[in-house]
Amino acid sequence: MVQRGADTQRKLVETAIALFASRWYSSISVAEICRAAELSNGVFYRYFPNKEAIFFHILDDVIVRIAAALERTEGGAIEERIRSMTEILVSFSAEHPDLITVFREGQYRYFEYERRLTETYRRILSKTLGRPAGVAEYLVGIGGPRFAAVRSALQGVNISTAALADMAANGLFPGLDWDPERVFGITIAPPAIRLEESSRDRLMKAGKRLFGERGFHAVNIHEVTDAAGLSVGAFYKHFDSKESFFREQIASAGKEVRHFIASNLTPGLNRLEEEMQGMFLFGVYLSLDRWCYNIAREGEFVALPTVKEYYAAFKRGYERLGAAGMDQEAVASDPLYLDSAAEFMMGLSHYYGLEVAFDESPHNARAIVEGVGEYLSHGLARRS
User: Fold this and answer.
1) So what's the architecture of 1-49 in CATH?
2) Tens-place pLDDT, residues 362-383
3) For a disulfide at 85, which of 46, 73, 260, 373, Cβ 3.0-4.6 Å?
4) For residues 233 and 253, is the Cβ–Cβ distance under 8 A?
5) What are phi and psi of 251, to 5 degrees?
6) What is the pLDDT of residues 74-91, one digit of tens each?
7) Number of Cβ within a 10 Å radius of residue 81
8) Which residue has the higher pLDDT, 26 or 46?
9) What's the pTM value of the predicted model, to 2 decimals?
10) What CATH superfamily classification does 180-377 receive?
11) Domain boundaries, given as residue ranges, for the chain
């Protein structure tokens, strides 16, 4: 009987993972999980009191599995251990895309799970480095490779695990100096405010807030038009459907954040200073408008092609800068080095954004970026 119960629970969990990985959490019901598992609703409630409970069970299990995998990190020198850890990160995402997909939703819906996973990563990284790993160490040693690994597993981007490990261990811009005053001594112009908004602008503004607060599936067109003070007919003058409206929200969010960074970036910075200032500005933007991140995350389930373009537009910005300031020998020896570098840098900003905006700790922003800058110049292995 005990084994049969364990098998039944496992079937429910595996079915829930498959459903949550294919669609947004809000669109899945307990009844649907039971139908897919070919079990009754009553059986479900013997093991879980509600849908949230089985979701938490999955998130807990993902953290346990990642921790167990990373405990296998090995190697004598720090650089070898960083390489081993990076290989495990990339392999885990490639082998468990469904779990990674579910956790990506969980980290935004229930941020405490992202905090717990971050603590796990920092504990393993501390053992790998032989010293305490702070936020800057985490971003460089885990954040960059983690983002690249997820993008490779879920969106098919090409990366080099060896290149990612080298960036973390030895620095992406080895030996390049930076000036704190040039990076942080800036006056930031906030996003422009329209005094006279068109009906389309009002719909976009209302939609961003509602989608950001409650999610795509929980919001209907009537609520958007009511919030904008417009009729449903006005909505359909500009958008074909809620889906097309949401896609426009994703594209708009990407354009707005890129424009904010570009318009505030100081001319004449070297490549490292530019990356540091861009990261800092990204955090500032998220503190002003956090809904753009929620919309982009949910878009992975609702409008994946649009989200791919969202990231592709950021990546093109890195590609235009080329290999300036990087280890030219490393670039020449690995055809995927530049692609991996772009993913690595996007990962730094992505998880930095979580630290300073979603964790509500913007007062730490400068110290974090300064630490990241030092490791981008000297590497985690070289600062042991």
Assistant:
1) Orthogonal Bundle (1.10)
2) 568 999 999 999 999 999 997 5
3) 73
4) no
5) -60, -40
6) 999 999 999 999 999 999
7) 22
8) 46
9) 0.92
10) Tetracycline Repressor, domain 2 (1.10.357.10)
11) 1-49, 180-377
